[in-house]
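Table S2 (text version). Query chain:
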Amino acid sequence: MTINEILNTYSWEHVHKLVYNRTVHDVERTLAKTKLDTLDFLTLISPAAAPFLEEMAQRAKVITQQRFGKTIQLYAPMYLSNECQNICTYCGFSMDNKIKRKTLNDSEIIMEALALKAMGINHVLLVSGEANKIVDMPYFLHAIALLKPHFANISIEVQPLSQEDYRELHLAGVHTVLVYQETYHEEVYKKYHPKGKKSNFVFRIDTPDRIGAAGIHKIGLGVLLGLEDWRIDSFFNALHLDYLQRTYWQTKYSVSFPRLRPAEGTVEPNFIMEDRHLLQLICAYRLWNPDLEISISTREREHFRNHIIPLGVTTMSAASKTNPGGYVVDPQSLEQFEIADERSMDEIRALIRKHGYDPVMKDWDVCYTGGADA
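Corresponding structure-token output:
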């Protein structure tokens, strides 16, 4: 079955009924199991599981340490461009926002790279708006060639591409591709994406298949928490991950939890997700899928990031700037969204060590070769 066929076996309304009709007994049965399926995941994100959050958190802590050790991988994003041809109602880069656009040139890319290197960063995430005629494949390949001498690990979060394009990126040295569906609620997806290539729901949902078929080492998924009911969207995201892991079993997977943040010209969140809900979701992912990498960004507030480190997270961004040139070239350019945790890389490293964990500055292989900050 294709991912569309799998997702279409569940209606949004049916999943809503399933998740909100779960009982305490359902949760107890799930927690008694040693191997969980996607319906067990649904049980763990249901309101019925809320009283079990402490137990879930302690189990998530043990499982994460068993699988990943006491390490947190650190990275920082580099925004290459805020040009965009889409209208997305929640994004500061949306084409209908009348703001100054900027795309980094060669010297600016190097300046930003050197600023990140000065922080100790070895893992960079390249991000851009979706503007196929400005930030296109030749631009990406050229930027990657400029950056490869400076970073051990390059990931990208850009517009959906063809399988052939992803294969080129793989050969150029890209390690990970992140692509968020934003919401799996097809009926309202068009409302949030009224214009541009991103409005094609099916093309976007098929993107991870093209990434997996191209041989990319790791695929990152997630939904934009706040557009629709986080429980239902997260269940569909888990279905998607389950399908991908069975289909492209040699690929690694990560999940991120972007909560809707203030940005230029954006809508208010349609659904509010509280911190305790996000903790429940993180723990549910960990109990369901022990091998899944779990990432928390600087969208989250200091208090939450201070306490989430031992409870399932494996990757964190730090000292992030969400505007092109934000580190040194053009700090005043438009942000994609406001970050909430503005602490420096050194402060985040110190926080991680305070919890008894090692901050890792590239990918997981360093955990076995030389200790902290390798």
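Notes on Table S2: The longest strand covers residues 71-81. Residues 364-374 have pLDDT under 50 and may be disordered.
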